[in-house]
Write a structure and sequence with these properties.
Blueprint lengths: L13 E6 L2 E6 L9 H15 L6 E6 L10 H6 L8 H19 L5 E5 L2 E3 L1 H8 L2 E5 L3 E3 L10 H7 L5 H10 L3 E2 H7 L4 E3 L4 H13 L3 H15 L3 H16 L2 H11 L10
Parallel strand pairs: 2-3, 3-4, 4-6, 5-7, 6-9
Antiparallel strand pairs: 1-2, 7-8
Helix pairs in contact: 1-3, 3-4, 4-5, 9-10
Keywords: Fatty acid metabolism, Lipid metabolism, Transit peptide
GO biological process, one term: fatty acid metabolic process
InterPro entries: ClpP/crotonase-like_dom_sf, Enoyl-CoA_hydra/iso, Enoyl-CoA_hydra_C, Mitochondrial_ECH-domain
Length: 271
Amino acid sequence: MGEIHAIRPEEPIVGHELAGGVLRLTLQNPPANALSMAMMQLLLDHLVAARDDRAIRVVIIDSAQKLFSAGHDLKELTAHRNDADRGRDFFEKTMRLCAELMQAIVHHPKPVIAAVDGLATAAGCQLVASCDLAICTDKSTFCTPGVNIGLFCSTPMVALSRNVSRKQAMEMLLTGEVIDASTAREFGLVNRVVPQEYLNPIVRKYAQTIAAKSPLTVKIGKEAFYRQAEMSLTDAYDYAAQVMVENMLARDAEEGINAFIEKRQPEWKGE
């Protein structure tokens, strides 16, 4: 299975384990896995470190608590209302770090999979929506409830509206109501819904399947997917055609095509 890095005591709120090319980052900030500044920074640090680590092919983000994540740490935010600026500076730092974290997932060269078991709310739901794939248990629930406490989920809206239709995103944002796992799949927020006991095996299967592909090809494809999605149809085809040409010139594409023709397993070099 490869080298395993155990959770380090100096970073207990984010577990870190690498096995078989798959890096598992586990949220473990009880009781609600709130995305405090410390947790977001640790997640970001791990993601940045994984970018150029050739031993890592796929990243999984999961949780060790009954909740996947309750979103921003409201107690941490509220404590700064006593600051001279009523918390403005801290609020800005929090939202900037959150935006940096979510974009680091989208722009990461390795695929990132959310494994959800429990409630994912507000920025926790944003984290799920930011991942490339999301698999959840049939007991999982999702919501963007900021409107209920006078704080519209504006930053979660960015990720949410890029995963589900506008009408469905607005339904979640305006009502703040919880949706169940099957509705989340219907909306397009998650890929699959599975019984709790199958979550880890199925997520592991997804990760191992992707990890067996050419890392260069996966990197090229992920970047192209998100870039073309923001373009007009004509620009997207022009861009994607150029990506295909450059990809065809890569050694892994040459190896993969030859292996297919010769009916053998390819040997990826990542170049």
